[in-house]
Amino acid sequence: MKQKNPAVKTFLSAAIVLIVMLFLTGLLTYLIPNGDFNAETMTFTIREEQGIPILTWIGAPILVLFSESGALVIAIILFLLIIGGSIHLLKETGLIEGIILAIVKKFKDNELVLLCMLVFVFMALGAFIGVFEEVVPLVPLIIILARRMGWDELTGLGVSVLATGLGFAAAVTNPFTIGVAQGLADVPIFSGALLRLLVFISVYAILVAFLFSRTKKHRIDCVENELTSKQDVSKKAYGFFIVLMLIMFMLVGATPFVEALRDYTLPLIGVIFLVAGIGVGLISNGKPAWVAKQFVIGAKDMSPAIILILLATGIKHVMIEGHILDTILYQISQNISHTSPLIAVFIVFIIVMMMNFFIGSGSAKAFILMPILVPIMDLLGIGRQLGILAFQFGDGFSNVLYPTNAVLLISLGLVQVSYGKWIKFILPLQGILMLLSIFWLTVAFTIGYGL
């Protein structure tokens, strides 16, 4: 019997999960009262109409394109097409293989050093700069490097997208979570960084140990004659690519400090990779028809990821159209204000983690939740800094867990790893991170963090 294509299996497993979640969210609009919650006056009003038509559930992945967030979804889709085409071009020219070959030769006897370096770089991108979506173009490159080192795909995802996601959670100066939340809570921007730096170090140590242990237990064969580039790539092509990558990293590094860049980072990265792919293709091959053909092949390979993105954003669309988010927020405010301070901190952590399933953006959740949490923190005598820490943990660690997270879906699709396989890989680490989060929240509460 002919076995099913691994890529098809990966796509179907993720799509089935998302379709089930989409219909369950639609059912919730009938089970949870639809209402409007005013965070300033802490008042809640039930809406007359309850639930949304089933056609809205089914059509949500398309309807979301015409909603307020439609422009962002379309931008992400275009970004994926450009990245897919450009990366495929760079691979076909042999440039990526050449770069990976040089790294492997340098670190083939020091894989722990390479692992530590990669994890630190990607975690730092998330923790200090707030990078997450922007790592997607780098994932295929890291996967190739991982395979050449004898690591499996999950380890490759671990040192790239997983490390970035955990860095985002163990943020020290992340402007999109820490910066926004502290601004809304009227707390000095990036204050309390020492404790967060200790959190970063502890998460870094745990992730390195987790991944290094995997490299010893799950190795793949790496044939020596595979470590050759497909073509003889000219120094001019390498130089052109390196210059563009330096420009990209400078752009990413400047984003937290130049507000005007924040809304354009992803499009600019897409343009840089487009120029890199086409430029290297023309320098190496010189035939526009070949370059165009390879770009289209790579872009077409991204189509399954686009379908998954539409399904994931459709879930959020159904939740918003059903007006159940306000009801949930109102119940949260009522429950937290009538509990003990430490338990309240844990509840905030769990609630943010649950909301992250539907609303992936850390900044968006901060604007929704902080106006509600700040007065409750003050009422219970909890430092606002501690409430922000609970928000940070809840927002970040689950980014690499939920099937509604666009970055995770894209990354799994690029590597053809099923969501089920990813969950089996990530759950033990998520359990450790849950306990670590509770530990640091308890320590912060005990020492009066932020008071």
From TrEMBL:
It comes from the Bacteria. Signal peptide: none annotated. The chain crosses the membrane at residues 12-32, 71-91, 193-212, 237-258, 264-283, 304-320, 340-359, 366-388, 400-419, 431-450. Pfam families: DcuC. Keywords: Cell membrane, Membrane, Transmembrane, Transmembrane helix. The keyword Transmembrane helix applies. This is Putative ion transporter superfamily protein YfcC.
